[in-house]
Amino acid sequence: MAVLTGIRSKLPDVGTTIFTSMSRLAEEHGAINLAQGFPEFDCTPELQGLLEKYMRMGRNQYAPMAGVMVLREAIAEKNLAAGNRDYHPETEITITSGATEALYAAVSTIVRPGDEVILFEPAYDSYAPAIVTNGGVPVYITLPPQYEYVDWQQVEAAITSRTKAIMINTPHNPTGKVWDRADLEQLGTLAEKHNLLVISDEVYEHIIFDGRRHVSASAIASLAERTFVCGSFGKTFHITGWKQGYCLAPAELTAEFRKIHQFIVFSVFTPVQFALAEYLKEPAHYQALSAFYERKRDLFYNAIELIGFVMKPSEGSFFQNVCYENLSDEDDVVLAQRLTSESGVASIPVSAFYKQPTHYRTLRFCFAKHDETLLKAAERLGKVRW
Ligand code: PMP
Ligand code: GLN
């Protein structure tokens, strides 16, 4: 029997996420699921073996609240080798339950009621709800899905006396845009001038194409001192279901971050942390990833090129956006549903990443799939009657 609690929703505008609903629809119709972003392939037997090894070794009780030290050390080393800030494993690195928890805990650490946080939309779906549940106010800089550059004057104009932080994401979900060093330096200049904190979502750091290099906020001196860098092993090692992430931040920020983290999860899955620490010792395990996905991006792009979409190759992440304005006027949610049920290919309508209704007529396809799956999906898309 339902109990009347009189509860007032903290997130009245939020329903089940678009990723869940499109995956459900794909399953219902037996469609190829290029919607929710997850790899179709498994992690390596080596990583699976390491997980088993540490479970059998009895590493099965609570990990330290901040994460097992060998993993924190491995992350520190990897980050330093990439030319980024030197984070101290003891006081500046925390292992989290995926990047989702890192992002939520970072927001929760800094946002008080009435604080404004600047977001660039299209924005990943967890950012705004994290701000709102903490009493904050998301302030949006709206960019088209195929944007070329950020107008930093527009960003500065959005800063008020209540602005607490800016959240960024590079490589970007859903647009596949990669910010270069100049963008991050501009951000650093603004953040310093207005004394803002930064939350930088870098979960696709190892999926970046055409010779581009990931520039972490932790590589820019003016940013590193005021940024929570949120990362994930889910994308890097094909283990989205293991929910292993981390947060890098200077000691003063990390001390406060851990006060929140310890009451969300306390600590995360222990044996995986030991397994990842050992696996990270071999840089080839993540350095090969960009080439692996670049080939898949090309395969999918070439296979859908003649359909008539307006598109440009994704710069990073495992998403390709396509604009169908030359083919149809249909609303993107309606079209994504129709393509799933009638043509057997599920995608994500990019309007789901915007706060206000938009008409960019753009769909996001995930190409983290077997070649046969991508080719089959492209063939089906080629037969759609627009
Ligand atoms: N940020 C972005 C941009 C993402 O795409 C995702 C998940 N795909 C996350 C954060 C969440 O990462 P995790 O699965 O490690 O929680
Ligand atoms: N980040 C994944 C995506 O963008 C989905 C994660 C989720 O389902 N919450 O598709």
From TrEMBL:
InterPro entries: Aminotransferase_I/II_large, Kynurenine-oxoglutarate_AT, PyrdxlP-dep_Trfase, PyrdxlP-dep_Trfase_major, PyrdxlP-dep_Trfase_small. Its cofactor is pyridoxal 5'-phosphate. Keywords: Aminotransferase, Pyridoxal phosphate, Transferase. SUPFAM superfamilies: PLP-dependent transferases. One of its GO terms (molecular function) is transaminase activity. Pfam families: Aminotran_1_2. It comes from the Bacteria. Residues 32-380 form the Aminotransferase class I/classII large domain. CDD domains: AAT_like (cd00609). This is Aminotransferase class I/II-fold pyridoxal phosphate-dependent enzyme. It comes from Dyadobacter sandarakinus.
